[in-house]
């Protein structure tokens, strides 16, 4: 028998969530050298030493790094050389003036960027999370930075998943993974293994670091921590040297041109004066004075003031500008890649409409068939679909009427049945069993499903909408519900949900088109949903490309595909960044608009990366700068 105080052999360091999601849970536990009931304190300490803390990165504001960002300019170097030359030729007043201009220019940019860095550091330092972990056979609460591969973690409603987990058990568990995958709705979780090479969105047997437990509960074993998680991999990809913007490139080239001109004039004038037998000192001083004269001393100050004015204008639109030099590039953008979920759309499901299929009212029955608690005509708890249904304007007329109904029994939703059933009693005492869930789960238990209903369902699926079927039957004398009672149902109809576009998104896209900016959609959502959103926004879809198809293309082929493709769907964060980088290399300035961690790599790769709440902000800012 193993000694609990003695560390066992170390876990497999190559086991990440993508691999773990395709393996049975028992094999994952074996490769991590742990069972479901124990990771000893000695094991945990040894693994913490080996793998390090479960932290992606710490944000520290470094004074000299921010200052260096302001000083690494060929133009500033030219001005400092001019100031030194002015001092040598006896023009000390000019030297002081040039020095003051340089100091003001550097100081203005430094203050703006240093304050932004300090604000980010302050926010980062206030974030602390604790999690419930099973060690030595008992549950205990620890700081998430102390998690190690092999720890068994409990997940509850509202928790932020603290590391990449392979799920061992679930109870109606759903996770909001939009921050990583772009899915607008919560993802149902199970303990089943995925197919080989499955994308993140299809790893239903895993819970990903940084995502949120939307419903239910679960238990999982940690398979990756810190920078080895999918979340951490994205963040680590951002920890690179700041890229040079198009504006910086142009300014550097102009500065070097001035350096060459000043150098050529200095050497030429000095040589001519020497050839004319002028005193060497006088010739040197005169040539240096000419070099100082051709140097635009006020240019850095004018540039800094102009960029600061643009930063202030952006601040009024609630956009924090960390690098002043990015302001100018916004006005040069000719291609805008934008995420869909939460950027062009509202980022949450909304009830759209009802499609009746029988004599009953599917909306009223759908409201009554819910796991949520109803108080004062509003749903408390429940899943995203129930909340969207109860808070919709269409439900307003049914809230008062539902007060006369009582829920007598509930058969909760589970991932095998993919439906929920309730036994309700009407104002007259009549008992009715109502089932609600995935159409492919509800329809087989219905009698005589109309052909028009299946046609309407196919059309909604083709349109990329999320559809819930509602069915019922009389249930006299029934007191409880079992799975066998979910039979001989009559289909009442369908409830259609959608993550709707933001009210101002269509107008923003139209304005961008007038500015001559080409807009392309990159999203983790599926092709049908992305195409439907484009249609609703009036954006013409000239081509569709999925992440799987993108993987088969090299960079040259992808560059050609980008020119004829409007929508990139089911793409990963790495896909988004690659698309942006390839487009940058083909020429032109590229902007990326997003709002989640899954967009961070692309935001970083673009000439201009903007994380805002509305596409309208980009349209307005581009217009203002141009």
Protein architecture, described:
By secondary structure, the chain is an alpha+beta fold. The chain has four domains: 17-54 and 147-237, Calcium-transporting ATPase, cytoplasmic transduction domain A (Distorted Sandwich), CATH 2.70.150.10; 63-124 and 243-307, no CATH class; 331-345 and 503-625, HAD superfamily/HAD-like (Rossmann fold, 3-Layer(aba) Sandwich); 350-498, Calcium-transporting ATPase, cytoplasmic domain N (3-Layer(aba) Sandwich). Helix content is 42%, strand content 20%. The protein is built from 24 helices and 21 strands. The strands form four sheets. Strands 1, 2, 3, 4, 5, 6 and 7 form a seven-stranded antiparallel beta sheet that branches. Strands 18-19-17-8-20-21 form a six-stranded parallel beta sheet, with helices on both faces. The protein is elongated.
